[in-house]
């Protein structure tokens, strides 16, 4: 199961969880993410675990796949960017 039930009941990620998720998708370690965000690696690990649980993913790799499939993140022009309701609505205008 990837996200069949998530599309109806979309999990809510905090802005910090989304930010950490972006760095994880780029392949950064918890230590590297911690340096960028000026938080501890343990806090990064906690955010990653929270996202993994919210997305019902088995591991970090599955979490990334679930996040992309759910539309939390998208790849445009070789860069990762967050997808938000405002972004989606702006494209429709």
TrEMBL record:
Tell me where on the tree of life, at the top rank, the source sits. Bacteria
A Pfam family (short name) is GerE
Instruction: List, for all copies, the residue spans of the domain called HTH luxR-type.
Output: 6-71
SUPFAM superfamilies on file:
C-terminal effector domain of the bipartite response regulators (SSF46894)
UniProt keyword terms in alphabetical order: DNA-binding, Transcription, Transcription regulation
Does this entry carry the keyword Ribosomal protein?
Answer: no
Instruction: Please name the GO terms of the biological process aspect recorded for this protein, alphabetically.
Output: regulation of DNA-templated transcription
**Record carries keyword DNA-binding:** yes
Database matches in InterPro entries = Sig_transdc_resp-reg_C-effctor (IPR016032), Tscrpt_reg_LuxR_C (IPR000792), WH-like_DNA-bd_sf (IPR036388)
- Molecular-function annotations in GO: DNA binding
> Which PANTHER family does the entry mention?
DNA-BINDING TRANSCRIPTIONAL ACTIVATOR DEVR_DOSR
Protein name according to UniProt = Regulatory protein, luxR family
Organism for this UniProt entry: Parasphingorhabdus marina DSM 22363
* Taxonomic lineage from the root: Bacteria, Pseudomonadati, Pseudomonadota, Alphaproteobacteria, Sphingomonadales
């Amino acid at each position: 199961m990837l996200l069949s039930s998530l599309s109806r009941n979309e999990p809510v990620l905090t802005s910090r969880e989304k930010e950490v998720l972006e760095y994880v998708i780029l392949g950064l370690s918890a230590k590297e993410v911690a340096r960028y965000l000026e938080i501890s690696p343990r806090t990064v690990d906690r955010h990653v675990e929270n996202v993994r649980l919210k997305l019902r993913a088995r591991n970090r790799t599955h979490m990334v796949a679930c996040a992309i499939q759910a539309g939390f993140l998208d790849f445009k022009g070789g860069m990762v960017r967050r997808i938000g309701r405002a972004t989606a609505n702006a494209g429709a205008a």
